[in-house]
UniProtKB/TrEMBL annotation, chain A:
SMART domains: REC (SM00448), Trans_reg_C (SM00862)
Organism (species): Sphingomonas immobilis
DNA-binding region(s), chain positions: 127-226
SUPFAM superfamilies on file: CheY-like
Gene3D superfamilies: 3.40.50.2300, 6.10.250.690, Winged helix-like DNA-binding domain superfamily/Winged helix DNA-binding domain (1.10.10.10)
PANTHER family tied to this protein: KDP OPERON TRANSCRIPTIONAL REGULATORY PROTEIN KDPE, REGULATOR OF RPOS
UniProt entry tagged with the keyword DNA-binding: yes
KW Phosphoprotein (keyword) present: yes
UniProt domain Response regulatory: residue ranges: 4-117
Protein name: Response regulator transcription factor
Lineage of source species: Bacteria, Pseudomonadati, Pseudomonadota, Alphaproteobacteria, Sphingomonadales
Modified residue annotations for 4-aspartylphosphate: D53
Automatic annotation (TrEMBL), chain B:
Keyword Transmembrane helix attributed: yes
Source organism of this protein record: Sphingomonas immobilis
Main location: membrane
Database matches in PANTHER family: SENSOR PROTEIN KDPD
Single GO MF descriptor: kinase activity
Protein name stated in the entry: histidine kinase
Amino acid sequence: MSATVLVVDDEQPIRRLLRNTLERAGYRVVEAINGSEAMLQFRAEAPSAVLLDLGLPDRDGLELVPLMRKEGQTVILVVSARDATDQKVAALDLGADDYVTKPFDTEELLARLRVALRHRSLSSATPKIIRRGDLEIDLDERVVRRGSEEVHLTRKEHDVLAVLARNIGRVVTHDRILGAAWSREEDPRIEYLRIVVRNLRQKLEAPGPVGSIIANELGVGYRLLTDG
Amino acid sequence: MNEPVKPSPDALLRQAAQEGRGKLKIFLGAAPGVGKTFEMLTDGAARRRDGADVVIGVVETHGRAETEALTRGYEIVPRRAVSYEGHSLQEMDIDAILERHPDLVLVDELAHTNAAGSRHPKRHQDVEELLAAGINVYSTLNIQHIESLNDIVASFTRVRVRETVPDSILDMADIEVVDIPPDELIARLHAGKVYLPQEATRALAHFFSKSNLSALRELALRRAAQTVDAQMLDHVRALGLGGTWAGSERVVVAISELAGADNLVRAAKRLADALRAPWTAVFIETPRLQSFTPEEHRRLAFSITLATQLGGQITTVPSTSVIEGLKTFLAESRATQLIVGKSQRSRWFELRHGSVVDRLVRETPAVAVHVLPLAAGTERPGPRSGPVRGQWGDPLGYLWTALMVAAVTGFGSALFHVLDLGNVALLYLLPVMVAASLFGLRTGLFAGLGSSIAYNFFFLPPTGSLTISNPENVVSIFVLLGVAVATSQLTARVRAQADLAAASARVNSALAGFLRELTVLSDREDVERMICAEIARLFGRATVFLAPSGVQGLVVAAASDSSYKLGTMDVAAAQWSFDNRTAAGKGSETLAASEWLFHPLIAGDHALGVLGLSDEGAGAAVRPDQLPLLINLIDQAALVLERFRLEGEMRDVDVIRTRDRLRGALLSSVSHDLRTPLTSVMAAADALEHGATPELIATIKAEAARLNRFVSNLLDMARVEAGALKLNIDAIDLSDAVTSAAHDARAALQGHDLRLQVPPDLPLVRADPQLLHHCLLNLLDNAGRYGDPDTPIVVEGTHRYGTIRLAVLDEGPGLPPGREQEVFETFRRFEGSDRAVGGTGLGLAIVKAFADAMGIAIEAANRQDGRGARFGLVFHSELIVRAAAPGD
């Protein structure tokens, strides 16, 4: 089954580039050049995923996100030159699955799309066990092992890891993580989250600076990286 | 109402004449020996360093070693020998200089007289010719050589110099006053450092007294200030900003309290417009002002206000007689046209008093007198003589007079046996004169009458009755009465004049004090406050200054005290006053229901703001006789504020110029740095047609990434310049931030081994994650670009003494010693870093701008081990997040 991807962008070169890239990766591509055409195509084709530009000639692409989200579980990937963090957070809060800034690395775009699609198809059943290298995270049992050795995590570290793991490969905003892992009485603050993430990295990652397991999305949130 | 002011033709001509001409700069000194030549040579040397072609035309060193030393390095145009009566004199060679045509020539002693046989008799004429040829000239001059000051200087120094230069040459020059305190100059004189011609030594010794030098110094400073003012006015006029016309005609209109005076004002405005002449409305303030009716006050105030509205000057001349006051003013103001009103008086009145108009025409032959009829029925009360105060005088005065007469009578009868009758009559003069001078005419007459009766009754035979037996005694009685009349007249006049003198002295000192207060201030807001405070002090009422402020309309810019109240009516009056450039509010024609009187501050054809005077506390509106003073003060204030505005405009022009220069630098560097990677990408893409190689693909990727960096830097800089930086402060884990930056900068760091030495347990810091990310990216990018290939780049984090430092260290040429901080300037790339590294010079400027915005300090230095440069971000304790418990 080849999934259908709707590409919404008013720039013809970008549409051509995306079409080539996506078709090479085995997707079926439909195009729209503005907001109203996008909604028509969205309803006619019921695509599995939408690559959405924000700067459309007739309306702000951000307005389309809640409309599309209301009508189904389609993966929405915002592809925009806007790089302000508040725009990214707004898109994610409105229901977008991920956010890629132009200029983008096509490989990375495809990876994000793949992750989002996979996540969507599995959304009802998150895998119980996540493996990365010699690391094994058992979400149900709340146990993390490196090789055969158990890594001890605090309750908060488990909570944060669980949120990220359920959204593996996808960015999760700070607010969402804080909302899921901290109760309101605890006065959730981003400082706490930073410390927990730092501790998690120290416990989970192999020594060395790069090769992070939890990626930092500047000013937006964190993403648990997948293996491939 | 006011037509737009056209640029003054004279001023335009003067400015046009300057174009294409050289510029003259005069080093003006108070006396020989202040160091003018020295200053000129130093300044010239500075121009030379700037790359100008500077030569010496003539410089007199008088054998002074310091001066001599300064001339070294200058090209000196050799002087020309002029032979005169067997003597051979060395004069400046003007032809050689014209031939040589330098940018700037130094010509010492502007007032010098050339030897006979030279082209021009005076050196300043040589200078004129050089200027006309487009050569800039620096010259020196002592104050006593200025023609208009020659007499003054001679009057107190008793040294007259024959070599003078016309004032006009100063007016087109930039003047720099070379100033040293008199004591220092005298010390230099004693130390033999001042050159004096042998024969003049004795005369000049007197010249160098401290008082003389102080006076000369004051003259020099004042003359320089005057030139600056005149040049400023020229500039203003050439821009058509208003001010006075510099024509030769001058119109004066005499206004009065009579009905119809406003028509005279309008006529004056028309005449002045037709003649393109400045005009003045003058009010001759006679003692009669004190007895004006409210209606007369109102009419006078209206004429005065009207004259200001129509752009006339207002002057009040205190005088006891209208004709005398007018004559004095006409002479002082060099008026050529006079407008007066003629009242419809009876023939009989004119026969008795003579016509004012006839006398004016007869006594001011240089002035064309225009006589206009005043509205009918404005019969002016005849000239009123006598004391000013009250009709009948103080009742207490009569009591005192009666007592004095009684006392003299008692004294007289006590001594009657030793005095004769005539002496007693003389005694009675005493109370008469005292009463007349102290209490005025009627009391004086009362004293005379009382004295006569007492004299007659008690002393004249037959005593005890009021009959007079001897006819010669009748004379004594008339003398007593006559003395009373004469004395009271005299004292009344003296008193009136003293009052007027005091009043005009008050006005003058108020004006002078006001100006003095205003001129010492250099800040516009201080000036506005001072204007309010001074006017409040002089008029005894709360004062506010309202100025337009962007979209809000008029807002209060300054107030004499902060408790002022402005209602909607008052604000409306202020706005009306501003829009119509006319007085409004209490005591005016418009919106008189307001509690304030508003006067606009007008400069040229626009209002700068309005000044409001409160009614509260004063009880009544501003008196009409105070209006001219108020208007004068407001005019002065407007001039001062206008000066600030013009200065501000000039500063703005400077800012724009700087910005233009920066923009030019940006464009050239951006077009270079954007096109280079584009060229590589396009060339590589062309080559792809013959088959893709990994190398080509790598090139395209790397160059595109480089292009992307430039673009985001440009966007960042634009955001900083537009002031649109919005901070989004978060707690940040530095090791996290460094890791992300290293990831994003990996393309720029190719060929370098990146070593991250950031301890994982550094406290969190407060910063904007994106801005910090861009700072780090640019620092890494910079290190990658300037570090030698295949050398490691170290990112090092330290936490010491409550401060966190994050430093990027490269191994390369480092920074030029002593100029480390300059790297953060926009477009700064050090010359001599000849490696083809590219880069707009924007990166580090962005680091600085972003770091500044977040309160992070930055450091740039060479590494202590000398292997390269080290750039650091410093987070002081207030940016460090106290250890927070994540909760568990």
